[in-house]
């Protein structure tokens, strides 16, 4: 234990240095509250793990925090531009951030909270959980999924040049992976569980539909992978089982929040498949006094409900509530 860390009690400790965690730090700073942002990875770790050539659906002004303008060369900003922007915000306001430090445990202690991390311990009057959902992929649950050729994260298309690639999924991530790897020389097969493509960026969907129509990207709908082997993959289609030669499987099946962390803290979750956490939408406070949620974590398994642009206000609500409660004392 790093006892030096316990000498200071922060008004707020924020778990997660994504855009919403940074926004919470900015609001705390503006309100004159002492704060610390603790992040298990790098700054805006989820955005860093996006595909190399990823383009946001949102325009740049909708990704802004702290009143800092976000300028982009194009109508839609890129991953690289977002990384640059959030670095500049962190530097401009000299935000108090500890990176590559994972929070392992949170427990009440004498009206405060003690946070145990991979590098020390801290006390806080209030805790804001602003973690994302990019750390735990939704698995296929098929034999062979643990083989190195199966990837749940896609980064750079060049890697798959002249490889036989199966992309699993129906939405943006699958569309981007299929198109980019095909354009870099991969032999691409798309496997979609539904009867049609899902929610895809409007400038990407026609491109993918045309590639499928022309037979340049093979696609199987109402289909699923049933087994992965070293040089093959089995696909169940409406016409029966199909075995394909295969080098890599890109399972773009989405991700989910770390519910075990919320449960360990004592945050109530619904018992259905949505796993919605309990919080007051007006204040963002959970069933635990002085513990708040912000950002995508609020949606449980509905990870496409909250985005940067519509959850920036969570930080404002949280700090306003903390200030109001302090004034009542």
TrEMBL record:
The keyword Acetylation does not apply. Keywords: Flavoprotein, Oxidoreductase. GO terms for molecular function: oxidoreductase activity. It comes from the Bacteria. Transmembrane segments: none annotated. Pfam families: Pyr_redox_3. PANTHER family: THIOREDOXIN REDUCTASE 1-RELATED-RELATED (PTHR48105). This is Uncharacterized protein. It comes from Pontibacter actiniarum.
